[in-house]
Amino acid sequence: MTNDRWATHRVYDAAGNDKTGPAAINLWWLARAAAEETMQGSPLAAAWLKLFRTQLSQKDPYWLRWRGDLAESAELRRAYSGLYGRFIARALLKEHLGLSRFLSLERNGVTVPGAIQIKRSTKGDIPDWLAWDDRNATYVLGEAKGSLTARDFLNPNGPKCVREGKKQFDRVVATEAGLVVKPARWVAATRWATDDRRGDPITVLWDPPVPDDPQAEELAPKRREAMTRAWLDSLAPALGYRTASDLISDERNEDAIIVRADPGEVPESLDWPVGADEVGAGKEPAAPAQVKSRRVPTDGEQVFKALTSGLQESEVYSDSGILEAKKAETKPYEGAYIAAAITPFGIRPIRSTDEFEGLKREQDRAQRLETPVMLAGIPLDLDPKQSPARQPWLDGAGIAQPGELALFDLRRVEVRRHAGG
What we know:
Layout: E1 4-12, E2 18-26, H1 27-39, H2 45-49, H3 51-55, E3 65-66, H4 74-95, E4 99-104, E5 109-111, E6 116-120, E7 129-133, E8 138-147, H5 160-168, E9 172-176, E10 179-180, E11 184-191, E12 193-194, E13 202-206, H6 216-235, H7 244-247, E14 257-261, H8 300-307, E15 333-343, E16 346-350, H9 353-369, E17 374-379, E18 393-395, E19 398-400, E20 406-409, E21 413-417
Parallel strand pairs: 1-13, 3-12, 8-11
Antiparallel strand pairs: 1-2, 4-7, 5-6, 6-9, 7-8, 9-10, 11-13, 14-15, 14-21, 15-16, 15-17, 17-20, 18-19, 19-20
Helix pairs in contact: 1-4
């Protein structure tokens, strides 16, 4: 079974492009976003480990659709909508826009030592994250929204939840060295689809234009390094360290483990739900800039090229590969990591020999009982001064790329102690 699910995707960018078309969302994107949220302090491990196992639709292998009606009660549906909305929003911001170094603003903002400070300026909800955009050398504020009932996600002016999300950006002030700065602002929203509700899932990325930063290129290396260190600070406790400095010290080599992942079997191609009567069936009326509904040809590749032509007019998708279903890896992956196991009972750093032996026992148990256990790690060679790589190794066993948090299914990888340990 492929790890990709499809959604109707809409992007409104700073250049004024408002385009809609199909986009594949890889489930490992969501898992990695959830893992980072968990390791940065959100007590969500048990919830997201069961995400794909118990709540993805078993009837629909194409769309990002949830089983049943997501939950029995309205209260739980709202809770899951908010929780999974954060995961998908963070995944879209990261994978589609190339953002990284996400830091939660929590209740009153965040301070990045030696760089930017975000402070609440008025009452009301504030954005979810501060992140770094290496491609455009700028800070970004991000906000997540999710809805089960909204019918306005393709309206010309954008959905109501996006308009409400945009208001949150005006409730904080960003300063650097005593001067006001203007981060970019992106809202990422999802209209869910379930087995019990008509329509297809819709995702939206919405960017209100902001003034250019004339010092962006000049200050980018300093800002990137500061954001990376703050991001590592937020992850260090989950990995058994106090601070980023401890996490990237020379002594960390003896705590590292080697992870090897072999590519899985090439899955059956599910690059487009061929056989559907229409693209857009059961959804809201199309926005003016959207690709119009049409009969789906029997050639999935032809469908993809035709329907993504509009999205590719957005400067965000100059490389349309991110919109496609991911091709299976053909080569194995191996890397050294400072790691932690994520189980339904919490996070367990893997540093000592005893902890590594415990990880092996956990792996044996997970393989025998088919229970989900994830292995998350920071690459041993991560350099705060270097920008992360764009393309990951991505397969059924996990997702890994230089300079970023990696995530593996412990049941499907080999682990051993690093030679320096």
